[in-house]
């Protein structure tokens, strides 16, 4: 018995092969958003969310097939990290300002 194939947009895909890179992007986005949800870290969470989305967009333009998926993942991770770090610094600056006014 051979492998079973699906035909999608003129391309034969082996069963079980990832057909939708949106599923991966959505999963990464969910992980970053839930990981960034902590009290007092509103800008860090928002930065992670925005960075993940912004990073995934250029990543999706790289390569074809599995290369495109890897580009999305790398772009989302890098963008999420940069957005998180930027938001973290903004949250720390807000805390300093609050302490100065108290």
Kindly provide the radius of gyration, computed on alpha-carbon positions and rounded to a whole number of angstroms: 19 Å
Q: What letter string, H or E per element, gives the SSE order?
A: EEHHH
Oligomer: single chain
Spatial strand sequence of the major β-sheet: 1-2
Number of discrete domains: 1
What is the overall shape? elongated
Strand element count: 2
> What average pLDDT do the residues reach?
76
Helix content: 55-70%
Tell me what the structure shows.
The protein has 102 residues and is mainly alpha-helical. It has one domain. Helices cover 69% and strands 8% of the residues. The protein has helices at 21-36, 42-59, 66-101, and strands at residues 5-8, 11-14. It has a two-stranded antiparallel ribbon. α1 (21-36) packs antiparallel against α2 and α2 runs antiparallel to α3 (66-101). The longest helix is centred in the last third of the chain and has 36 residues, at 66-101. It is elongated, with a radius of gyration of 19 Å. It starts with a strand and ends with a helix. The model has no long low-confidence stretch (mean pLDDT 76).
């Amino acid at each position: 018995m051979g492998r079973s194939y699906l035909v999608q947009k003129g391309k034969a895909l082996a069963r079980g092969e990832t057909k939708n890179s949106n599923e991966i992007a959505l999963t990464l986005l969910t992980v970053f958003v839930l990981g960034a949800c902590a009290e007092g870290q509103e800008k860090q969470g928002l930065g992670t969310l925005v960075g993940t989305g912004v990073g995934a967009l250029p990543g999706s333009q790289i390569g074809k097939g599995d290369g495109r998926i890897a580009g999305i993942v790398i772009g989302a991770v890098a963008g999420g990290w940069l957005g998180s770090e930027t938001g973290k610094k903004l949250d720390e600056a807000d805390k300093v300002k609050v302490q100065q006014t108290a």
